[in-house]
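User: Quick one: structure for sequence A, then sequence B.

Assistant: Sequence A:
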Amino acid sequence: MIEDIRKSANSVENAILVGIYGAETPRWLAKEYLDELELLADTAGAHCMRKILQNRPHPDPTTYIGKGKLNQLKSIVDEDQADLVIFDDDLSATQVRNIEKTANVKVLDRSGLILDIFASRAKTSAAKTQVELAQLQYLLPRLTRFWTHLSRQKGGIGTKGPGETQIETDRRLIGNRISTLKEKLEKLDRQRTTQRKGRSNNNRVALVGYTNAGKSTLMNALTDTNVLAEDRLFATLDSTVRKLELENHKILLSDTVGFIRKLPHNLIESFKSTLDEVREADFLLHVVDSSSRLVEDYIKVVENTLEELGITGIKQVLVFNKVDLLKPKRLIDLKKEFPDALFVSAERRIGLDKLQARIEKMIEEDYVSFEYNVPMSQYKAVAFLHDVGVVESEHFEDNYVIVKGSIHEADRDRFKSMLADLETAPT
């Protein structure tokens, strides 16, 4: 399985990175992509010895880089004594087999590398289950490469006859395991749904963004907590929820797994339930690494991934992080290009007051004024208004509590269904 291609925990493998460029992907952009692949390799524990780019209009269907370049790659592997070669695209089983046969080296594609990182960083039961499911779905069509002998036929009496080939056995066993994992994820999803119901009275804001944009650092700065934040890709896999008390509102702030270009489809499918924190948020803070040359590309990747996940129609605020690393002209240009965005440095706590004020403003955009005459016997309803809304005044008259303030439209509807016979006097 995937473990067959993973490094020992105490060793560093020397890697050569390979990509292609052409009309659709200019050379400078392909170099940026290989730089990102190097960060992924470093996160996985590999040392990049060399980067190779091949000019091709499209990948060769049998060798990815072409026979001549493959022979050159073999010479480089021998010269550098490389342990593995990592390609910046997904490879077919045929491509992997041909490359390994010629270059005599372990071969890994982009999806395999990302899955390896997720497997090493998964800590909770949900994350481990999601990653294993994605790994097996990735492995299934590649069994000609990863012939792992999940079950071995033994010789002896009763074992003779046609039986199953090893690869058929492996496919059947993997299929059974996939079904088991999907059932387990459904159960975990039901548990998370129950947990979220217990938090339904709170406004909810989710942090999304390209991996390593600084979402966890921003959460720590806003909530004074200690969520793991590293200068590495995919530091966060599981959704983390923390309370944030603003001047007029209390919210639940969620930090989620970062996105990346060419994120394996199976991984997206597996992590859909984890990203329910995003799907059910009142609005999103889209955190962007302003110091990157690929700001626009990263924004598009996040937007496209959200759309693929079916997360649409939720209001967003662009938050450009790491502004302390920008030259003044670049900052001016970004502000002109994105006039409604916010610019902060979570590390140096720059612009956080403006961010919190924007969050409050976004929350109150969906608020409506109210004036309710609540029977004193139903004072729990008044407590509900204090909990989810902004109470401006409250006084007692006869057997009623007269409460004025503002409340989110959804919470107003919940309040009305709670007290269907309540007399209302909207302002």
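Sequence B:
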Amino acid sequence: MRIAFSCNPALGHLLPLLPLANAARDAGHEIVFLAGASLAGPIERAGFQRVDAGPPDLPSAFERVPERAGLTGRRLAAATWRGAFGGVIAPEMAAGLLAHARGWRPDLVVHDDSELGTWVGAERLGIPHVSLQATAWRGAGVRLAAEPLGRLRASLGLPADPDLARWHRHGYLTTRPPALYNPDDPMPSTTVPIRPVALDELSGGTPAWLPRDPGGPPRVGVTLGTILPGRLDTMTAILDGLERLDVDVAATVGPGLDPAAIGPRSPRTHVERYVPMSLLLPTCDALVFHAGSGTMLAALAIGLPLVLLPVAADQPENADRCVAAGVGIALEPDGRAADDVERATRMLLEEPRWRAAAARVRDEIAAMPAPAAVLPALEALAAGGADGRLAG
């Protein structure tokens, strides 16, 4: 079987796809990744062929959507979904798939859930397509994407689909455990669970301080992702608050921010540009972070309670779901001073209910089917052709 995996040009969109791609490769299937140039290194290190498709990175795509300027939170997420993912990236990803299919026709397309173009290209090719969840499910996104994807369908000679009913008709692979489902915004009827696997050791090394003294104080991890606005001020406030507690602190600031910009810190505070979360999180007792999907699932998979500081994209929805599940405390933008961070983190460390709730979610994640266990359903889907449906 030939499978084309595709994603938006950012590491957080690639990583959720890799465990399933690895399982498919181990089973003997042919794999290619369609992605922008910024993912060339990670895809090559994972051992896969990359086909250039779409813009090189997300910032360059975002620059082409001027209506994003000045927006925050859910308004920014909506403009990004409609203008960037639907209007800018989707046509280029569809074109990339169709061009590659002239010489290498896939039997199946698996795309990250916010990469909106290759499934339309798959419709043009008459092959099944499946979305794998890399971001929070937001049913409103379907409606937001209807207009730009309608234009794309028309340009490819496809019939109109104003409700985008064909988007998830073959299948939707959710990486969310039941505790994080939103009962007011149900996922598609074709939803099948797949266990999220933290696979992020494709860049960066491990610092000497990472191993932890078993008899030492608690450790709190801190990360704000790589493109969060105002990260320097936010990170400084977080560290100021945490250093008032009897804890060790392990913070990552991302490739675009120099750890030296944070200024002098306590000897018990370690600041790095990058440490793989799959290595850092098992050494922690709690996590303060930006509510990004991959980091959230990696932390909950080992039962860590969370302090969430959502800003944009799917972060507000992730924070809502974590609060509803009782696994964390969300701090709003106007409540993220050092005092707020100190108070929230102290609660997580001192009150056992947060860790107990996180442990319940950890057990739910462990019970989800591994990627290799989902693969037979994908094989059957591909064998069934354009009218098939993923069976859980």
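The chain has two domains: 2-196+368-387, 219-366. The first helix runs from residue 11 to 14.

User: Thanks, that's what I needed.
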